[in-house]
Amino acid sequence: MVKLKIIMVGPAEAGKSTIANFLSEAIDFTNYEYRPTPGVRILEFEPSQKNIEIELWDCSGEDRYESLWPVFLWNAHGVIIVYNPETSGHAQELDRLCDNFIVKSLVPHSNALLVANTKDPSHAAAAPEFSGTLASITHVNVNVVENGDAVKTAFEKFVSSLSEGKTYVNDEIGFLALPL
Ligand SMILES: Nc1nc2c(ncn2[C@@H]2O[C@H](COP(=O)(O)OP(=O)(O)OP(=O)(O)O)[C@@H](O)[C@H]2O)c(=O)[nH]1
Ligand SMILES: [Mg+2]
After folding, report:
1. Radius of gyration over alpha carbons of the chain, in Å?
2. Beta bridge partners of residue 138, listed in sequence order
3. What is the pLDDT of residues 125-152, one digit of tens each?
4. What span is annotated as the signal peptide, if there is one (predicted)?
5. In Å, how far are 26, 43, 135 from 15, measured between CA atoms?
6. CATH class belonging to 2-168
7. 148: which residues sit within 8 A by CB, 6+ positions away?
8. Counting atoms of ligand 1 from 1, which one is nearest the CA of 144?
9. pTM
10. Nearest Cα to Cα of residue 6 among 74, 100, 63
11. Which of 57, 74, 63 is nearest to 8 (CA)?
């Protein structure tokens, strides 16, 4: 059994917990009441792929938890950055998130996924034009409430890319992420 630690980060209210709940089938993800995640929530579940167990870290997007970022990153295999392109300021936060969670952490670009969670597709803002490392990361547009299947497909593809070609032994998997 391969255990993969995946951290989900991004600005507050981007939809990280909603997506995490949907993917892990934890609780009713269509409960629209926004409850900020205090610090981090860790969800364990098995995706459709055999012999893989996911440890999904649903991290708070609030600035006051920034001191915990190295803890989130520790031993992480993959990083998912979630943002909402409709919310002003979210796209601007991406460079800093990318810098801290990918560039400085040494998580390979191929082990990162950028998720635009557009809550109202009819008013979707134009996708920002990325440059540098951000532009090299796989980018998907989703709406978890309207089309959860697309989120699941993107997530499982990402999980396959993390585990492909590598036979991890549980104790040998800490090399990808270094503390900040
Ligand atoms: N309509 C709609 N609402 C969504 C969608 N995704 C998230 N929401 C709502 O957006 C709000 C914020 O979602 P959360 O998942 O709690 O946000 P978060 O990124 O975990 O926020 P923090 O924990 O504070 O970092 C909630 O009220 C959700 O119900 C979506 O795809 N469509
Ligand atoms: Mg949350």
Report:
1. 15
2. 113
3. 666 788 888 999 999 999 998 888 999 9
4. none
5. 15, 15, 22
6. alpha beta
7. 22, 29
8. 31
9. 0.90
10. 74
11. 57
